[in-house]
Amino acid sequence: MRIQCWFTTVAVACLFWLISWVIAPAAFAFVQVELSDLSYQECPSKFSEGLVTPGSIQAANCYIITGKAINKSGKPVINADIFGRIYDANHNPVFQNRTRLGAIDEVPPGVSDFEVRITVSANQPTPLQLEQFKASGFTGKVRR
After folding, report:
1. Radius of gyration (Cα) for the chain, nearest Å?
2. What is the pTM of this model?
3. Is-contact 134 116, C-beta < 8 A?
4. C-alpha angle 23/26/31, rounded to 5°?
5. How far from chain centre, in Å, is Cα 42?
6. Measured distance between the N- and C-terminal CA atoms of the chain, rounded to whole angstroms
7. Per-residue pLDDT tens for 38-96?
8. DSSP-derived secondary structure for 115-135
9. How far is CA 69 from CA 38, 86, 89, 107, 130, in A?
10. In a 10 Å sphere around its CB, with 0-12 CB exposed, 13-18 middle and 19+ buried, how is residue 98 labelled?
């Protein structure tokens, strides 16, 4: 009787293991997206009127960073976070202790254009220096 109970337990465990392979949800891979041809320009006046830096009343300037996103995965990348370092003309960081700058909703396979809007304190001199830019996301929807 004890051996029969043991075999039943092992059989049920194996059955659950096999079912988990069939019914398992798709795994979405973390994908690196290369960013190139970076440049920036001032925002149109409708975006930048009356802007202040987050958490203060200090005047700010609005810029749009543009470039090319290169997705070599062969699958669309969803909600790719953009990371990078931005320095002012004196090589002072524009964003202290922050490298995430925004996101791209969808990056199709191949090369595509992207843009992200940033707000920079008005007392930081230009030209801005854009360094170490990259993006990463997933090949499927992660959050509901």
Report:
1. 24
2. 0.68
3. no
4. 165
5. 22
6. 48
7. 999 988 876 655 555 555 566 778 889 999 999 888 888 888 889 999 998 999 898 88
8. EEEEEEETTSPSSPEEEEEEE
9. 10, 18, 25, 7, 15
10. exposed
